[in-house]
Design brief:
single chain; alpha/beta; Rossmann fold; seven-stranded parallel beta sheet; 47% helix; globular
Length: 225
C-alpha cells in the first residue's frame, strides 16, 4: 500500500457524516484536504477540526451538481495546492418516496447530486490527474445500487449509474495510473440515517483506497463489513 502524505485530496460532502470523517482521516495521514460542501459553516467546521491537529485544509462551498461550482472547486484546489491526487465522491441526497409519488424535480435532484455530481467532479479532476500520471478516485456507493428497495427508486438508480461510471473510468484511465474504485460502507450514522456505523471507523478504508499503489484494484466494489 502507498500513502497519502503530501497528496491533495478533494472530498465532497465533507461537512458531515462520512465525508467529514474521510476528510479528517486523510488529513491525519498527511494529505492536504479540500473540503467541499453546500453549507459553508459545516465545511468550515471540518477545516477547523483539521487545523486543530496541525493538518492542512481549505473549505470550498459548492454544489456538485452545478458545473460552474465544480470548476471553481477544482480550480481552488489547484490554486491552493498545485495538484489533485485524490477525489472522494461522497456527496449525496436522499428523498424516500415510491416511484408513484416521486415528482420529476425530486427525481432529477437525486440523479443530479448522486450521479451527475461525481461525473462532473471526475471530469474536472481527470485532466490534472492525467498530467500528473497519478490519481485515485473513490466513489461511495450503496447495496441499493444492485438490490433496490421500495421508496429508494431514484437513489438506487443513481448509485447503479455511479457503479457503471466508476468501472468505465477505471477502464479508460488505467494507462494514466489513475485508479477508480467503489466503496460500499453499509449503513452509516449521519444526517441522512439516524443509525448505523460510526463514520470514523469506516473512514480508514477510504484512506486505504485513496492510497492504493498502481497494482491495486480498479473498478472494483469494496464492501465494508
Amino acid at each position: 500500500m502507498g500513502d497519502v502524505q503530501t497528496k491533495v485530496a478533494i472530498v465532497t460532502g465533507a461537512g458531515t457524516g462520512l465525508g467529514k470523517a474521510a476528510a479528517i482521516a486523510l488529513a491525519k495521514e498527511g494529505a492536504n484536504v479540500v473540503a467541499i460542501g453546500r453549507r459553508l459553516p459545516k465545511i468550515t467546521e471540518t477545516v477547523q477540526e483539521i487545523g486543530y491537529f496541525g493538518g492542512s485544509a481549505i473549505a470550498v462551498r459548492a454544489d456538485v451538481s452545478v458545473e460552474s461550482d465544480v470548476r471553481h472547486a477544482v480550480e481552488t484546489a489547484l490554486a491552493g495546492y498545485h495538484r489533485v491526487d485524490i477525489l472522494v465522491n461522497n456527496a449525496a441526497v436522499l428523498d424516500i418516496a415510491n416511484i408513484f409519488d416521486t415528482e420529476p424535480d425530486e427525481w432529477r435532484r437525486q440523479i443530479d447530486v448522486n450521479l451527475t455530481g461525481p461525473f462532473l467532479m471526475t471530469k474536472a479532476a481527470l485532466p490534472i490527474m492525467r498530467r500528473q500520471k497519478y490519481g485515485r478516485i473513490v466513489n461511495i456507493t450503496s447495496s441499493l445500487a444492485a438490490n433496490g428497495a421500495g421508496g429508494y427508486g431514484a437513489y438506487s438508480a443513481a448509485k447503479a449509474g455511479l457503479e457503471s461510471l466508476t468501472r468505465t473510468v477505471a477502464d479508460e484511465e488505467s494507462n494514466y495510473n489513475i485508479l477508480a474504485n467503489l466503496f460500499d460502507p453499509g449503513m452509516i450514522k449521519s444526517e441522512m440515517h439516524g443509525t448505523g456505523k460510526d463514520p470514523a471507523t469506516v473512514a480508514a478504508e477510504i484512506v486505504r483506497l485513496a492510497s492504493l499503489p498502481v497494482y491495486g484494484f480498479s473498478g472494483e466494489k469494496i464492501i465494508y463489513s
